[in-house]
Amino acid sequence: xxxxxxxxxxxxxxxxxxxxxxxxxxxxxxxxxxxxxxxxxxxxxxxxxxxxxxxxxxxxxxxxxxxxxxxxxxxxxxxxxxxxxxxxxxxxxxxxxxxxxxxxxxxxxxxxxxxxxxxxxxxxxxxxxxxxxxxxxxxxxxxxxxxxxxxxxxxxxxxxxxxxxxxxxxxxxxxxxxxxxxxxxxxxxxxxxxxxxxxxxxxxxxxxxxxxxxxxxxxxxxxxxxxxxxxxxxxxxxxxxxxxxxxxxxxxxxxxxx
Length: 258
Prior knowledge:
Radius of gyration: 43 Å
Helix content: 10-25%
Number of strands: 12
CATH architecture: Beta Barrel
Order of helices and strands: HHHHEEEEEEEEEEEE
CATH class: Mainly Beta
Distance between the termini: 108 Å
Low-confidence stretches: 62-66
Strand order of the largest sheet: 1-2-3-6-7-10-11-12
CATH topology: Porin
Shape: elongated
Largest sheet: 8 strands, antiparallel, barrel
Strand content: over 45%
Number of domains: 1
Structural class: mainly beta
């Protein structure tokens, strides 16, 4: 009886061993099955190594791109065709410091110097004491002020249009002379020459410019517009002498990005 039980236990053990050997093995993870030359894929929840993060470019936030500021220094030549017939022309130089608050809008601080040439001519006054008055000379204007600026997107070939609207206060150094014959109380003519005092001016300036690149940091521009003299001042000697600096403005110059 005991021999029979031992035989049954031996047969059962052999059967169980056979079943365990024929069963399918447990699946191995992908990292073990990958070849040595091909790194295993990272699980979605695993962070990339620090070296990989350092190599990846960091995108610039859109808000930072839109609010990036740009500084420029601008030099321009100005030629003015005067509205008043008493001036031949106005010719000058203006410097600007420009700050752009974004791609389109900016402000400028401006200062310059202009020479206004007087049209030499003779006045005919209906007076018993003043004969043949003549005016000649020039005036030096020192305008300074500020402007608001707007520039468009590129129009092709990297060209842009810039609009300017500003105010200038112009202090005037006058070298305008008035020469006339003065009849004294003895009835004798005396030749007299006096300087015409020209008052300071307040000017509004509006211009449009076409701008194109020269090289990386430099741009050229050419433009035109109009300046309006709001405070047509009086003259201490002859009211007929112009003190109006209104006229058509033609300008050209360069811009330098800082």
